[in-house]
């Protein structure tokens, strides 16, 4: 198989499940991750090593990582907010860790009980120790377009946080449209502000689809040279500390759009639909993904949809 053009990180088990009201069994999480591992996505963000008081849904992080069937070549990652989280992530043998902060002081405080500057200082030993352990490190910047409390965020302020994370040694900068407000012009402004700060090949876009603009923004990002995207199988997701946030761009929709346009992702829509069906059953409800509702075109409209 030719190397995929676009790299997909499946964030459903983390971003998707952290925001669910009902308790999801560890068995259901492991089954979801195992299906996603076989979908062809480059990376699966499995869970978070955060305080169980803050995010009870992911309290079984270590058990999930211990029980999944790891597929060679797939990167298994987890969020860590501090050194305690890193210790647990290392013990659970993750391949990669993600530190997370924001471009909004108010959101940052509500999400991790610290200022932006304090998070950067908190991450200094986390990133250094993760790199010493030869782990890849991602740095998330939430509220990259707008904050649920402060409103619009200046692209320059986002780029300042990206620079701070990059200076710490983060390999990758992940720009989060946490509450899904972006339109393509916002993507242009955001990426313009990152010129000379972080190269496009080190940026990942993390788009929530709250207002139906997620795929448009992903496409605009692609046109601007971005080749790494987060997405959530079934379109589930949202941050418990970001009121009004809903799910990420659905992975199967993103993969469908890219593959039908001749842009290889390595992922298979049919495998993603199986994973979506499994987690829909566990959650006991229909998922936001339109593709999960409609299914693949039958009979096939032509042979050009690779990856199905
Ligand atoms: P704090 O209360 O200030 O921390 O929380 P603390 O150091 O005072 O510790 C409080 C308690 O938590 C202590 O336990 C610690 O041991 C424990 P106690 O003595 O009370 O029993 N603790 C931990 N336990 C497990 N793992 C840890 C850990 N650290 C401390 N790593 C803290 C600070 C950062 C811990 C807390 O605010 C927290 O866990 N926040 C997580 C919030 C979160 O996960 N939000 C969702 C992810 S971000 C997101 O969704 C956005 C994203 O998708 C991108 C986008 O869309 O924009 C990434
Ligand atoms: Mg998110």
Short description:
By secondary structure, the protein is an alpha/beta fold. The protein has helices at residues 12-18, 26-37, 61-67, 83-91, 105-112, 116-132, 155-168, 184-194, 214-223, 251-260, 269-283, 290-294, and strands at 7-10, 43-48, 75-79, 96-102, 136-142, 146-147, 151-152, 172-177, 203-207, 228-231. It has one domain (7-294): TIM Barrel, CATH 3.20.20.70.
Largest sheet, described in full?
Answer: 8 strands, parallel, barrel
Structurally, the number of domains stands at 1
CATH class: Alpha Beta
Order of helices and strands: EHHEHEHEHHEEEHEHEHEHHH
Spatial strand arrangement across the major sheet: 1-2-3-4-5-8-9-10
* Count of discrete alpha- or pi-helical segments spanning 4 or more residues: 12
Beta content = 15-25%
Count the beta strands: 10
Global outline = globular
Low-confidence segments: none
* Strand-pairing-aware structural class: alpha/beta
CATH topology: TIM Barrel
Radius of gyration over C-alpha positions, nearest whole angstrom: 18 Å
Provide an overview of this structure.
With about 300 residues, the chain is an alpha/beta fold. It has one domain (about 5-295): Aldolase class I (TIM Barrel, Alpha-Beta Barrel). The chain has 12 helices and 10 strands. The chain has helices at about 10-20, 25-35, 60-65, 85-90, 105-110, 115-130, 155-170, 185-195, 215-225, 250-260, 270-285, 290-295; strands spanning about 5-10, 45-50, 75-80, 95-100, 135-140, 145, 150, 170-175, 205, 230. The strands form 2 sheets. An 8-stranded parallel barrel has the order 1-2-3-4-5-8-9-10, surrounded by 9 helices. It has a two-stranded antiparallel sheet with strand order 6-7. Helix 2 crosses helix 3, helix 7 (about 155-170) crosses helix 8 (about 185-195) and helix 8 packs across helix 9. The model has no long low-confidence stretch (mean pLDDT about 95). The site of magnesium ion (MG) has 7 residues, from loops. Magnesium ion binds near residues 15 and 178.
